[in-house]
């Protein structure tokens, strides 16, 4: 696993956006097959999406041959609700880029048969050829997508119950009232994310410092589902100085040295 450490969230976001665009352009240069991209929500990726929008408008990258699958969605929240992940993705990315509507996939949190919806999602990912790159964030408790602590590292797309902690953290989007945050979500599993050929995780701010310490230095454990990244052959966590605040000095120096040597 690589850990890229940038001075602040803006610089980390720029790194991530340019990295994603480079990967899309690199595949386009050698193949007609679509680039399959996993995407996340949350406040963390907003600047990355803003830079990708700028790059599309500047003609530096195109999403015409990109297929996306989002990682999660609340259960029971209407799609048009301003805090649904459908609304979020259109507001912060899809409405501003050249992606064909048919290439966008987001779990339907209102499906009549949730289990069938989750199974069909896994099949659609497989039919698209699997993920070229999965972009994710991390929760304060180390969750990846909505795979809360003690989710199996072998988990696949399914309905999950959100922890009290996550509902409290997300209450800021629901009038500060944790009870208004849906109690359940649909999420890709840890194994779904880790099945991607490349995984890039964004973690900015001091509130993510414990999750980063557990994921990077702790044992690989269902306690911190992001730690599953330790077993991925091509995983990168993009941090700022604040989110690496709990790492050992020697770990910090190691990642900085790799960055410098590889010119990342
Ligand atoms: C939610 C999402 C995660 C996201 C996390 C962090 O729990 N399901 O995918 O990584 O929030 O959000 P933020 O970026 O706002 O800190």
The largest sheet has its strands arranged as 1-10-9-6-2-3-5
Q: In the residues, how many domains can be counted?
A: 1
Bound molecules: 2-amino-2-deoxy-6-O-phosphono-alpha-D-glucopyranose
> Which series of helices and strands comes N to C?
EHEHEEHEHEEHEHEHEH
What's the CATH C level? Alpha Beta
Q: Overall mean pLDDT score?
A: 97
For the record, give the distance between the C-alpha atoms at the N and C termini, rounded to a whole number: 14 Å
Strand content: 15-25%
What class do helices, strands and sheet pairing give? Answer: alpha/beta
Largest sheet: 7 strands, parallel
CATH architecture group name: 3-Layer(aba) Sandwich
Q: What integer value in Å does the Rg equal?
A: 17 Å
What would the CATH topology be?
Rossmann fold
Q: What form results from the Cα inertia axes?
A: globular
Give the uncertain stretches in residue-range form.
none
Share of helix, binned: 25-40%
Counting DSSP H or I runs of 4 or more residues, the number of helices is: 8
Number of strands: 10
């Amino acid at each position: 696993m690589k850990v890229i450490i940038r001075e602040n969230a803006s610089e980390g976001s720029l790194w991530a956006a340019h990295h994603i665009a480079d990967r899309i352009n690199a595949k386009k240069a050698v193949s007609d097959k679509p680039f399959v991209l996993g995407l996340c929500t949350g406040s963390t990726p907003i600047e990355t999406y803003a830079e990708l929008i700028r790059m599309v408008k500047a003609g530096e990258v195109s999403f015409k041959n990109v297929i996306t699958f989002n990682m999660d969605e609340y259960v029971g929240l209407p799609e048009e609700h301003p805090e649904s992940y459908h609304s979020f993705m259109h507001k912060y990315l899809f409405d501003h880029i050249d992606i064909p509507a048919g290439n966008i996939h987001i779990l339907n949190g209102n499906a009549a048969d949730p289990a069938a919806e989750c199974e069909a999602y896994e099949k659609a990912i497989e039919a698209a050829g699997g993920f070229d790159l999965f972009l994710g964030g991390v929760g304060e408790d180390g969750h990846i997508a909505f795979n809360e602590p003690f989710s199996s590292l072998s988990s696949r797309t399914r309905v999950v119950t959100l922890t009290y902690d996550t509902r409290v953290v997300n209450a800021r989007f629901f009038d500060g009232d944790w009870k208004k945050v849906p109690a359940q979500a649909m999420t890709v599993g840890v194994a779904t994310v880790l099945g991607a050929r490349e995984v890039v995780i964004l973690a900015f701010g001091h509130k993510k410092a414990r999750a980063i310490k557990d994921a990077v230095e702790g044992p690989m454990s269902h306690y911190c589902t992001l730690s599953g990244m330790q077993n991925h052959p091509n995983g990168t966590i993009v941090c700022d100085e604040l989110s690496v605040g709990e790492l050992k000095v020697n770990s910090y120096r190691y990642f900085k040295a790799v960055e410098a040597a590889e010119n990342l």
